[in-house]
Amino acid sequence: MFGVGPGESAASGGRNQAWLDTGLVAAPLRIALLTYRGNPHSGGQGVYVRYLSRALVELNHEVEVFSGQPYPELDDGVSFTPVPSLDLYRPDDPFRRPRRHEFRDWIDALEFAFMCSGAFPEPLTFSLRVARLLRARAREFDVVHDNQCLGYGLLDVARRIPLIGTIHHPIAIDRRLDLAHASLLRGLSLRRWYSFTKMQGRVARRIPKLIAASGSGRRDAIEELGLQEDRVDVVENGVDVDLFTPLDGAEPVPGRIITTTSADVPIKGLVYLIEALAKLRTERDAELVVVGKLRSGGAVQRAIARFGLGPHVRFETGIESLRLVELYSQAEVAVIPSLYEGFSLPAAEAMACEVPVVATTGGALPEVIGTDGAAGLLVAPKDAGAMASAIGKLLDDPDLRARMGAAGRQRVLERFTWTRTAAATAARYLEVLETC
Hints:
14% strand, alpha/beta
């Protein structure tokens, strides 16, 4: 069924090795792609699911996405099965109290009980729901690909269908950084919220093949989750290079800086960029556009007020991809101030748009940016002074910006396309199937 003839193994022949290199097999694979949250506007997981599923279909595989709320945006040719939850964290009514008629079964009751206790239930409850769905449809799929849910229900799935998982980065790192910036009372709440990370470690150790988006992410997943090294492979993420491309005739706004952050949380390092902007504005005009949502009363809002930067920082939330490309075209510099990234789609997207990047050395960012000074400038995490200096260097030198921008797009075209990502991912599917 998978294109391996009698007596052959995909590791043994030149033709089969070609399948591993290209992601193509003689017959299309039937793939169930799981994500407990799917909306592209709620973080990188939604982007990953949309573009990976599309690229796999373009390689002639059959893909059905199973997702909880918020649901994904998917392209033609990709099937979709909703896995509805109680949707307890919807943006317009977070931590809501469902009405009695909304409870359908014991999983719903468990989900609400976990929320009331301060825990985050979605990875667990999604895995239980999707396991129930796949139990009845096991013969319809050749492989199941989990997108960092890592809930206990996947252990039931793995008994019936070959399973592979993606770990964008260990959530234990978010937990550690959040706790480092929290008060004692807030820390107690965070420990309960992040309690699902123990489950994710236990489940990850029982999945036969895992994918990390970078060498740094692979090392951290192995260390944080206690994984066997030979079970974790690197498959770098991609960028839609047809969408994220320089706009004809676009002229950047002088002094405009852009950053993208899916959440106003410590790991994203936005407060250090705010401090860097304050330093820059002592000697030049500069403004910042943040693609993301400001958390009321948070450290970023307090920093903006402390430095008097209200008129010079603008937030754009829930925008479409075309608007994001437009914002990149209006910026002279893109900044990734994160303390840690498992890959960083925003960095790669900015590079694809030929915007020079200033990024920290947190996590995988050096792997995405490449050599310091080629497509971007690298600084230490939390070093607002070094960040301000690097941004200022680019703002002052249009020729340097143009050179780095062109080098950035070339790097993306060579390494970070979704076709390349899908082909490498499909090769990992084949490796898992050979062991079953």
